[in-house]
Amino acid sequence: MSKLSKKDFITIHDLSAAEVAEIFDLAAELKKKQQQGEKHEYLWAKSLAMIFEKPSTRTRVSFEIGMWQLGGLAVNLDQEAIGLGVRETVGDVAKTLSRYADAILIRTFEHAKVLELAQQASVPIINALSDLLHPCQALADFFTVREKKGSLKGLKFAYIGDGNNVCHSLMFAAAKVGMNLTIAAPKGYEPKEEIVELAFADGKKAGIEIDILNDPVSAVKDADVIYTDVWASMGQEKESKKRKKIFAKFQVNQQLVDLAKKDVMVMHCLPAHRGEEITAEVIDGPNSVVFDQAENRLHVQKAILTLLLGGV
Ligand code: CP
Ligand code: NVA
Fold it and tell me: What tens digit of pLDDT does each residue of 5-32 get?
């Protein structure tokens, strides 16, 4: 039985602030146990079927190793072999996998496919990135900020770049953790209106501010965190050249970082395109926490799995 209010983990919007705090507390506990070499097999003999329709390093490896550390098993399904919606319908795959696995993870293009899988499956569905959202990433990111800064309330988080899946999930997460968020994106590349409306409503309830600007310089002023992501996401490769020109002023370089607080944390979900959205100097510099973020995917996802599968 899930210890979270929803059957699935699809969007942070569906979580309460208390559930996010619970995930963070359990992630911290699991991280400590793992570092101390203490067994924590809360998901003994449980299993996760993983469907990846886009490439992945961090997500695939952290979920697979995470399940193993929890005493369970993750099975990787090759998209070409499974042919979701091609070889057979999404519903038939959902129903079949539900008979074998205790949860199903999917990384795909259309968000609607994640929703359809969730509707048809009797086991929990985990959204491991769609064109619209990347909730596992955003939770690991705010967990990282909490770890480094102690508390999240009242801090300023500046997201610079494309109003994409990562940006959308950060917007939802900011409201749940009580952190102000300023986004700077080029005109026409701001976050999607449907997400903005929901995230603004969540933000209002939480008493935080989410601002959307077109100027990176004002966005990073007094920021405690500067975050960026690639300018062309997976599936948008054909737009890369055009986007490089449009986003040029949105590069996170030392000049921009110098405008934020001295101890600003620089974040990136990775994979990064050095010399495009972030310079090598900044990503390898003293303010960068990108590999702590990457590591925390493991601990936060183990907490999500454990709560979803009722393992603790
Ligand atoms: N940040 C992230 O999700 O990385 P991968 O695409 O490598 O999984
Ligand atoms: N916005 C990026 C995130 C990769 C983890 C993409 O969708 O490609």
Answer: 899 999 999 999 999 999 999 999 999 9
Q: Domains in the chain, ordered, with CATH?
A: 12-133+296-308 (3.40.50.1370), 137-293 (3.40.50.1370)
Ligand 1 midpoint to CA 204 (Å): 30
Per the prediction, the chain carries an average pLDDT of 96
Tell me: pLDDT of 270 over 80. yes
- Which of 129, 229, 277 for a ligand 1 pocket mutation test, highest count of atoms within 8 Å of Cβ? 129
Name the pTM for this structure.
Answer: 0.98
Cα gap 88→151, rounded to integer Å: 47
- CB neighbours (10 Å) of residue 269? 24
Strand order in the sheet with 73-78: 73-78, 47-52, 103-107, 125-127
Which atom of ligand 2 has the smallest separation from the CA of 56? 5
Distance, CA of 144 to CA of 37 (rounded, Å): 21
Closest CA to 47 of 24, 68, 18: 68
- Do residues 254 and 282 touch, judged by C-beta distance below 8 A? yes
Distance CA 160, CA 172 (A): 16
The three-class DSSP label of residue 74 is strand
**Beta pairing partners, 101:** none
**Encoding tokens for residue 301?**
């996802």
Per-residue pLDDT, 80: 81
